[in-house]
């Protein structure tokens, strides 16, 4: 749907940084980049940044990829191929391709943009929004764009309001009452408080708005500086804070909520525990993240699959799901599913139980299996009678057990387990 041309978003492009592995997700990112990790039953993590841009009225996007990008590229080609060049709409996928030299891959977030300057020039845009492709949230970028233009800033940084005790894990903004950033501190031991909020701090979301002509010049200068690490958070933003004007934009001012009293929702699902928790939270009666909101939908690739099917109705062999999300193509055959999230095509067999399980697409759960507090990777076959989540020491012998007691099961782990039986 075309937006009115007076929106700033019609003069902007979104540049999504999606090259990172996300190593804290351990084996879940062995075969895919973090932005390509599944989330919420049918989407991928990157769909949130792209959907936010689309819903905000942005019709020019680029995605920079690097680490094991095939899964991500294939998803974007299948699910995001509806842009039409004749309507001045574009979505370009920009793998690291040695465009500067034969041994020069993307060396940092700023370098990923610098190496594609000519492509961005061809978009003929006034503004560029730099986005991280690995967070879960809903945000209207038009609000942040307008704030940036009205302030006259060189850069506007999207910021989360977090307790000071938690801010030690973020890049933190020290700001004046006007919102001007006076210092950018990376994971400070003593985070500076917000003006008038002594217990809270402003943490960077990795979202930046620039006028393209200004950012272009900054990138050229940064690429020529031998001491630079070619990174927005380490180099570009601190330089602007010192020598220019950087403003903070509070996420709560542009967060899209399904009701007026809903809490601000932003999640970095970068650890197994955070990933599992964010998915399981969607099974709540009224989850903080509303995937049913037609006014701000999360677009994705939707497979053509039949509806979910529940079969058998005998004592101890009843196909049922309680407080769970069950995606299309699933067959729940004589299985009890509770507080779980099942992605497309999951097939469970008789007399098995799933409790607080995140099952990625096309898993198969054998008969009499009992799974609790687990993540099952794409295509894993759980053998008959396997018990997981009741004895962490036994689980850790074959599978990955997180600090929070969540068990990850991948194909490689399952192969080793089966070979030893």
Automatic annotation (TrEMBL):
It is an enzyme of class 2 (transferase). Its EC number is 2.7.7.27. It catalyses: alpha-D-glucose 1-phosphate + ATP + H(+) = ADP-alpha-D-glucose + diphosphate. GO terms for molecular function: ATP binding; glucose-1-phosphate adenylyltransferase activity. Pfam families: Hexapep_GlmU, NTP_transferase. The record marks 66, 105 as: Could play a key role in the communication between the regulatory and the substrate sites. Involved in the biosynthesis of ADP-glucose, a building block required for the elongation reactions to produce glycogen. Catalyzes the reaction between ATP and alpha-D-glucose 1-phosphate (G1P) to produce pyrophosphate and ADP-Glc. Belongs to the bacterial/plant glucose-1-phosphate adenylyltransferase family. This is Glucose-1-phosphate adenylyltransferase. It comes from Roseicitreum antarcticum.
